[in-house]
Design goal:
This protein is mainly alpha-helical and about 350 residues long. It is built from 16 helices and four strands. Helix 1 links the parallel strand 1 and strand 2.
Length: about 350
Amino acid sequence: VVSTTATPTGRMITDRHQTFPAIAPLTAAIDRVTRAAENVYVDGQALAEGLFADSMATNLLMVGVAFQAGCIPLEAGSIEQAIRRAGVGVDQGVAAFRWGRMAVADPAFVADEIARHAAPVALPAVSAEVKAIVEATGAFGELRRLLEIRVADLVGYQDDALARSYAQAIARVAAAEAKAAPGSTALAETAARNLHKLMAYKDEYEVARLHADPGFVARLDAQFPHGWTAKYHLAPPLLAKPDPTTGKIEKRVYGGWMLKAFGLLAKLKGLRGGALDLFCRTEERQRERRLTEAYRGLLDEIVRDLTPKNHARAVTLAAYPDEIRGYGPVKEKAIDIAEDVAAERLAAFRTA
């Protein structure tokens, strides 16, 4: 029995540039050295999330798959009794085991059940203010879709002014691209994704806003109808101190009361970057702001010097912030790498 959610090598993936192996060659290799007709392949995590909205059900669901496929020489009753004796998540555990069996016996029935209960995908409504900002850019097609999502996000992140400055920057890129490479929006789309990524960095105000978002809290209430508690592992920049041995900032555990604190902090997002913003004084936040301004300057140079000849290199150059991942020290290292990549690609753009 094979779950397609497993890492094929059994090792942690540490290089995001490494392409994940295609499933078909892997299963073909297994079939060549086994009784292919008896092999069963399922995406256990997808089934667990579709049936229970909880990936934690994957393990027992896969036990059910293995049992039904004849790989576990026990009685079904014995397995269910063991699940009940464990005393943790009993109802879901037994149900996951049984649904795993059904995934082998009648996979079409399981697929229909998941589809029948799937929540309809609700596209976020575009507000009048967001629509007006996007309309002013003249964007259409995929670029317009990207802008509608990101302009709305930046309005929530801070305000209309920030969202408008973002949209205007992308509009300038799109106009230059229309002249240099008629019919292409690859550069504008790349700029739209990456400028937004840099502008909407996850600072203290944004973390608070996301945690205190009523929609997020409502989803938790729905997932845990009998109530839930939360603990937050945080390292507030004004309170956290480095470990005397390692020099690393240590996180502390805060209780559920932080949710109210998040709600209050989220309302202060308008202070971001201003004289009263205490958080922006840290080197981490200042570097994030410098990074955004540098990228804006880079887009200005691209707009000024874009030609049909260097268009492809401009797209690659505009994509360099995609190298930046993670938070804290991980992000700092990623920024160093990204800046080296940017310098190399900028040189190539200038010499095209």
